[in-house]
Amino acid sequence: MWRFTFHGTAHGDLLHMYARQIDDEIVMERAAGNALVRWTFADITSDTFHWRNERSTDGGHTWRLDQEVRAHRLR
After folding, report:
1. Which of 22, 59, 69, 75 is spaced 20 to 30 Å from 39 by Cα?
2. Any residues with CB less than 8 A from the CB of 36 and at least 6 apart, and which?
3. Residues 11/33, Cβ–Cβ less than 8 Å
4. Alpha-carbon distance 41 to 47, whole Å?
5. Count of alpha carbons within 13 angstroms of residue 61, beta-carbon side
6. Which has more pLDDT, 39 or 14?
7. In this structure, are residues 16 and 30 in contact, taking their beta carbons and an 8 Å threshold?
């Protein structure tokens, strides 16, 4: 497990998260008020990755997708 700090420069956000590898994914989690937030990096290759930002308000029983990105490296 790793401790991760995200500095959001656009709004001055400072997020502390915990990251771990689960199978072939990297999952980062934090508490946000009464919700749990997780960022998942999947399908990681040297040129691509898939990122999901999900939120749970029931202790992690169900998750709602807030954002999703499929990234591809430009050459």
Report:
1. 75
2. 29, 30, 55, 56, 57, 59, 60
3. no
4. 13
5. 3
6. 39
7. yes
Over residues 34-38, the mean pLDDT reads 94
Contacts of 12 (CB under 8 A, 6+ apart): none
Euclidean distance between CA atoms 18 and 28, whole angstroms:
5
Distance CA 50, CA 72 (A): 9
Q: Characterize 32-69 residue by residue with b for buried, 16 or more Cβ atoms within 10 angstroms of its Cβ, and e for exposed.
A: eeeebbbbbbeeeeeeebebbebeeeeeeeebeeeeee
Q: Which long-range contacts (C-beta less than 8 Å, at least 24 apart) are formed by 56-64? A: 60/36, 63/38
